[in-house]
């Protein structure tokens, strides 16, 4: 009988030891899981703040774009009105109409002529080679 009680006591102690070990493993797993949850929660909060900031930036950009489009529309309307006024004035005044229909002088055409440049050096060479202005008091 003492053997049986000793055996039962040994089994109970073994079961208690296994249960304690399982409790420690479960507690370690819980601590690790809570740490992971904290890290993930911080990441989610950071992501949510970034999303909110980007959303606010997008709304501000949309507002600025709408304002710019409105300004562009107004500028286009003003340019069209100005062009129509110029055209009306040109059509109404025969002297102005003849002047605007005439060809530009050769000197003006030469000022507007520019070759295609492959590099900044080509442009500098072209500028340097062009006709230079005469000195003060000298005839061209």
UniProtKB/TrEMBL annotation:
InterPro entries per the UniProt record, alphabetical: Phage_P2_LysB
NCBIfam families associated with the record: phage_LysB
Protein name, per record: Protein lysB
Native organism: Enterobacter agglomerans
